[in-house]
Fold these 2 entries.
Entry 1:
Amino acid sequence: MKRLLIFLVLASLTLTSAAQGRRNFARSEFPKVNDDNSITFLLMAKDAKKVSVVGDFSLENGKERRHFEMQPTEQGLWRVTTPPLRPEIYSYNFIIDGVRTCDALNMMQLRDGENHFSAVIVGGGQADLYKVQQTPHGTLHTIWYPSPTLNMQRRMTVYTPAGYAESRKKLPVLYLLHGMSGDETAWAELGRTAQIMDNLIAQGKCREMIVVMTNGNAWQQCAPTHNGGRAMQQYRNGEQGAPTFVDSFGDVIAYVEKNFRVLKKAQYRAIAGLSMGGGHSFAISRRYPRTFDYVALFSAAVRGFNDEQVQAELKAQRDNGLKLYWIACGKDDFLYKLNCDYMQYLDSISMPYTWRESDGGHTWRNWRIYLSELVPMLFQE
Amino acid sequence: MKRLLIFLVLASLTLTSAAQGRRNFARSEFPKVNDDNSITFLLMAKDAKKVSVVGDFSLENGKERRHFEMQPTEQGLWRVTTPPLRPEIYSYNFIIDGVRTCDALNMMQLRDGENHFSAVIVGGGQADLYKVQQTPHGTLHTIWYPSPTLNMQRRMTVYTPAGYAESRKKLPVLYLLHGMSGDETAWAELGRTAQIMDNLIAQGKCREMIVVMTNGNAWQQCAPTHNGGRAMQQYRNGEQGAPTFVDSFGDVIAYVEKNFRVLKKAQYRAIAGLSMGGGHSFAISRRYPRTFDYVALFSAAVRGFNDEQVQAELKAQRDNGLKLYWIACGKDDFLYKLNCDYMQYLDSISMPYTWRESDGGHTWRNWRIYLSELVPMLFQE
C-alpha cells in the first residue's frame, strides 16, 4: 500500500509541473539515511534502460567518484542502497541513460562551479559541525565593494559572528579564498563556513572572528549564476591578465577595515585558500608584507616558487616572522607532489611551516576539515 | 567543425564528473538568447526517445506552462528554438523520457519551493530591473533572530540599500512575505528583490528603504534546503497550529527595530506579501493596529473576511486610516474571484483600497511586477 502510494505520488510529480503547494509524504522520505548510515535513493524513470547514482561516497582515493547501479523495482521506480557511509556531506547525481541529473526528491542542492549536485548530510562526528545546531548564529552578508584596481564593483560574502551587531568589540579577520571555477558563494555553500564557525565558537574552540569570502576571478563582478542568461560566457575570456585578483587584494582589505569593526594589525589578520585560492594566499601573503601573521594553504597551487622574485619575497616573509604558515594537502591530491616540493624549498631556506597531511584528494571534504582545524589555531595570544 | 567540437565536449561532459577546472566554449553558448528574443536550447541525450522543454514561456493564461518538443540533430544532440519572447526571467526544465531535469549547460538555477528550475533572462524593458546593473548595490543579510513566541531562532533575509553602513540616516521598512512552499530565500532569489530595489533607487523612482523577507512557515527555523538530508520531512507536520507566524510577527518587528537603523512609526512601515504571504499581510496589518500605514496584497489568499472578528478588525483598520491598501491580482489567478469578493466586502464597509488588475496568473512574473510598482508608492510624504 505504501509502495503504491509512493508510485502514484511520484507518477503525478513527473506529470505536473506547477511548483506551488505540492506536499506529500513520499518526497519527505528519500534520499533516506538509514540507521546504519547507508543511504537509499529512489528515482522514478519508467522509460529508462540504465540508471545509476554517482557521488563522492568514496573519496579516500582522491577524485574518483563512486557509481551505484540502481535496480528497477515496481513500474518505473528505481532504487539502490549504498553501503554504510561515514558522517559527511555527500553530493551526487543520477545518471539516467547517460544524462546527468539532480534528484527531484531532494530539495538540497549544491553548485560546485558549473555543476549542480544533490546533497545529503550523514550526521555524527565531524559532520555535526556542518549542521545548523541550537547555537547562536552569525550573519552572512552578501555585499558589494568597490575595486578601483579592477575598475568594477565586486561581490563578496562576509560572515560576522552572533552578537557582532550589538557588541562594540573589534574582531580579527580571516580572509578565505575559493578555488578555480568557484566564486564568492563557494565557501558559504560548499564549505559550510557559517555552520563550522557558529559551532566552533559555541563550543569555545575558536575565537570570534569575521570571515571574508571573496571572488578570486578578476574578470567577474560576482558569481555567474547571479546575473542570468548565458552565464558561462564570462569564462571564455577568463584568462587572467593584469591587473590580477592578487593585485586588487588591497581593495578588499581597505573595504573590510573601513566597513567592519575589525582589529587592524597583522596579528589579527589571517589568509587561507584552497587550490587556486591557496595559490592566491601564497602570493598575497608575500605581496602584502607584514599584513598577515597567519597563512594557510589548502591543497594549494603553490606555483612559481623557483622564480627569483618569489624566492626573495619568501625570504622576506621568513625574516618578518609569522605566527603560522600552515600547509595542508591530501595524499591523493594531484597537487600533493607540488606541495612536497614547495616544502623542500622552504626547508632549504629554513622557513618555518606546519605540515598537515591528510588522506583523500582535492575535495571539499578535506577543505571543510582543514577549515575546522585551522580556525582554532588563529589569533591565539 | 564547430558542431563536432560541441558534440565532443558535451560527450565528455556526461562521461566525466569532476567539478573543478572545466572550461569550454560550448557550454557558454546555450541556452542562447537570439537577437529576436527567441531562446535556443541544446541538450545531449543520445539514448533518449522523446525530449521537451517546459517552462513559463507563456503565462498570460495563468498557470499553464508551455512545452516545446526538442528535435534530434546530430548524434545524441537535441535542439529547439522558442518563438520570440518578451523580456522576462524564464524558468524551465527538460523532460527526458518523462524525467524532469535541469539544464546542465546553464549555471543559473532557481528553486521554487520543492522544485529546481533552470533560468534565463531575456533582457530589455521590465526585465532590465531584474539584472545587476552598473548602479550602487545594497547588501543582503542572511540573519537569525529570536522568536520567543515560536520558541526558536529563525532565519530572515534583510536588504539594506547601498550606503546604509556608512550613513547615519534612519530608513523606513518594507516587510515582504512569501507564499506557500516558499521561505526566507524566495523573494531574494525568485523575486529579484535586491536588483529591483537597487535599480529603482538608482533611478530615483523609490525611496531608500530596508526590506525584510521573513520565513512564514511557523514550524521551520529556515529554508529546508539549508540543513540537509531529508529536507522535506519538515513539511509532513507542517499544518499550522498555534502559535502561528502571524502571532509571532511582533518578534520580527522588535528584532528589526532593535538591530537596524529604522524609523519606528506607522508611516514608515509597509507590509506586503504574495499568496499565503498576502493572507499573512491581510492578517498582520489588522492584528497589529496602527503599525503599518502601507499594506499590499499580491494574489492574496484573503480568507476569512466573513468572520465577525475579522470584520471588526477591518473596520478598526478603516477607522484608523491607512495611506495605501493595495490589492493586486491577475485575471487568470485562481484567487482572482476571492479577491473580487473581498473588494466587494470592503466596498460594503466603505474601506478605501487601490485595485491593480493585471493579466496573467499566480506567478512570479506578476509578483516581480507588483513589487516594482509598489515600492515607488511607499513612504511618500
Entry 2:
Amino acid sequence: MVDLSAERLRALEDHEEIRNLIASYGPLADSGDAAAVAALWTEDGVYAVDGFPEACGRAAIAALIEGPVHRDLMARGCAHVLGVPVVALQGDRATAQCHSVVLAKGNKGWEPVRVAANRWELVRTAQGWRVTRRDNALLDGREEARALLAR
Amino acid sequence: MVDLSAERLRALEDHEEIRNLIASYGPLADSGDAAAVAALWTEDGVYAVDGFPEACGRAAIAALIEGPVHRDLMARGCAHVLGVPVVALQGDRATAQCHSVVLAKGNKGWEPVRVAANRWELVRTAQGWRVTRRDNALLDGREEARALLAR
Amino acid sequence: MVDLSAERLRALEDHEEIRNLIASYGPLADSGDAAAVAALWTEDGVYAVDGFPEACGRAAIAALIEGPVHRDLMARGCAHVLGVPVVALQGDRATAQCHSVVLAKGNKGWEPVRVAANRWELVRTAQGWRVTRRDNALLDGREEARALLAR
C-alpha cells in the first residue's frame, strides 16, 4: 500500500521549500551576498537575465551580484521584489513563474527600474531544491517576456 | 475517531491551492491567456473590477483580457503583481484579501497605474478551488476600497 | 518512537500561520484597524520603524496607525505591500525577512514613498504566533537596511 499521506506531506514541503528558495533571492541580492545568491542555483545552473550575458555556473552568477550594475543599485538603495511564485511540481523537478520588480532610489524617491517576467526550473538535490535555470525578460511589450509567464 | 491529521493535511493543501490560484492571475493576464484567466472563476463567477462594468461569467471575464484596455497595457509592457493573500478557510468556502499593483511601461519607464484592494470569494469544486467573486477597488482614498481589506 | 509526520505537519502549519500573520499587516494597516494591527504583536512587542520613535507595546503600535502620518496616507490612498517572507523556524521561535513597499497616491498617480527592509522576530504563544519585534529600515543605500536582509 502506498502511503498517500507521506506523498502529500512531501509535496507540501516541496512547495514550501521552493517558495522559500525563490523568496530568498531578493533579500540575498539586496544584502550583497553573492555567494549565497549563487548557492541558490546548482553548480552548473544558468541565470539568463535580460540585458546581460547569460551567466552559467555559480561563479558567473556571483559575478552579477559583485558587478558594477548591482553595486551601483545597492549604493543608491534598491529592492529586488519578487512576486508570489506559481509552482508546478513534477517529482524531482519543478517549474515556477513570477514577476520581479527592481525598485531603486533616485533624486525623487524610488522608481521601478526593472519590471520583468521570470521562469524558474528547479531540481531536487541531496542538499535540497536548487535552481537549474532562471530566465528573466523585461515586460516592455515584447512577446519574449510574455511567453515566460504563459501556462 | 476523527483523523485530525487528514483534516490538517487537507487544510494545508487548500491553502496551497488557493494561493497558487490567486498567484496565477497575474502571469495568465500578462501573457494574454483570456481563457485560462476566466477558468480561475466558476462558470458563473463575478469579477467586479473598479472602473469597468461588472463581469459576470467566464465569457465576460475573458472579454476583459481580450479588451482594448488590457491589450494596450500588454503592448506597452505590463505586470499585474498581486500581494501575498490573507486566506480564511471555512470548509468548502474561503475568502482571501490582497493588494494588486499594475505596473505599465511609459516613456519614462514603468509606473504603477493601478493600486487596488482585492477581496476574493472561493469555492471548492470537483475540479478544485475556483473564484466565485473578486471585488477590486482602487486605493485612492475611498472608504469602499479600504473596506475590502478590513477583517 | 517520535512521530516525525506530526512534527512535519506542525512545521508546515507554523509556516502557513506565520506567512498569514505577516501578510495581514498590509490589509489591516490600509483599512485603518489599529487594534488588529497591534494584536499581531505580543503585548510587549516592539515595532522599530525607520523615521519614527521605536514603538514598544501594543498601545504604541496602535498609535502609529492612528497617527497623522498614517491617516494622511490613508486619505490619499495607500497600499502597504509586503513581499513574500523568508521564514526560519526554530521550535517556538521564528525569524522572517521581507521587503515592504508603501505606495501612496499623489497628483500624478501612485508612487513608492517607502521601500524598506524588514526583519521579524516571532514567538509561539497560547493564542498562536505573534511578533515580538519588527525592524524596518529604508533601502536608501545605508548598510543598516541591507543588514536586515542578510542571512
